[in-house]
Sequence to fold (456 residues):
Amino acid sequence: MKIEVDLVNIDGGNKGSVLRLLDRLDVSVNEVDQNKMPDGNRPLILPGVGAFGAVMQSIEKGGLSSRIIELVKQGTPYLGICVGMQILFDQSEETPGVAGLKLVPGTVVKFTKGKVPQIGWNKLDNAKSNGYEPGYAYFVNSYYAVPQNENDTLYSAEYHERYCAAVQHDNITGFQFHPEKSGAFGQTLMQKWLSDVAK
Amino acid sequence: MSQNNLCKRIIPCLDVANGRTVKGVNFQGLRDMGDPIELAKAYENQGADEIVFLDITASHEKRSTMLLWVERVARNLSIPFTVGGGVNTIDDVQALLQAGADKVSVNTQAVKNPELITDIKTKFGSQCCVVAIDAKRNSKGIALVLIKGGRENTGMVAFDWAKKCVELGAGEILLTSWDKDGTQSGFDLELVKEFASNLPVPVIASGGAKNSESFVDVFKEANADAALAATIFHDGSHTVGAIKNILNQEGVQVRIC
Fold:
């Protein structure tokens, strides 16, 4: 049976490349927003390009963020990409004073060394396995998450300092990198997540 | 110095005219090299980290044909790609990004209207704003900025222009040496080093790639963040994968597929 997902629409976010990856993987995509709320029958994907505050503001319209929190707490699988991962946490240095979804304890901070944003391919090292393989992924980010519980980190990477490149906590997954731009390896990661949540 | 594990990138560059990949000397006698999507996909499979497409179509129908092939590229590639060549307005940029390009490269128009760089940064973010700089040394060895495909020398010092571009919002500098381009004598290491070591954004070195040694040198000696080449990949004499294997043996951090 064809896998179906709910893709959360964000103002100004670039969902095109995620849509194209899902299309290559023959996944059926149902776009959701404040006018067409997710019902929890399909896993949620939140692709995020943009600022933490802008993304939160966009999904707070019409109570969409409250619905997402409710569904995820009830067990609906969630995949957040880039800022879609960062908003899982309590708050971010990018937009002080704006609360995140608070689904994973921790904060989001800015890189303090080197050329910022980090743009390019970096090596993912397993912090835990959960069946995910190490490999190289494509990043475009100035900020990264610092989970309160070390055990939530799925992958870490090194950019002048060791940082969290992916999280996994029960039904919640976050990729700081872009699987849709990470070649065959990125596609494998997406397939892995899809096959886990389709079970 | 702190550890930066970011991989050095290898970027094949394709010239596109009327939706076909072409190759010629100084834009004369263009030869059809095939479908840009097929070529780009082949480079992706070889391990290319990114692809740069430069549209050199001269006709008025340029924009519509350009958007068509950019959309096809986006559907077929799963690595980032940059599109340049005649990007004149913020609307051009928006159309290309909407068609699926990850980054847009500006050159002549950025010199004529530097505000374009700031507009791209403000509207879409500096991560998608590549400024291409064509540099040629004068008799004193100072690299100056050329525009209009090398036909006009602006007299501006290339490094000063690059610093200005970064202040305005450029996220990356694509630096082509016109003294080296097409010569297959190696990259201009001194020039690349000046840019890559002193600018706070990634620098892509271009012009002069000859063999794997050129890449080892430009990364190890000149500190480039990425290196671009066309001829040595198109003529089949080198694959991206073979060059990366040698870089890896030489201790340069690259993405091995």
Summary: Residues 103 and 145 of chain B are 22 Å apart (CA to CA). The first helix of chain B runs from residue 36 to 46. The mean pLDDT of chain B is 93.
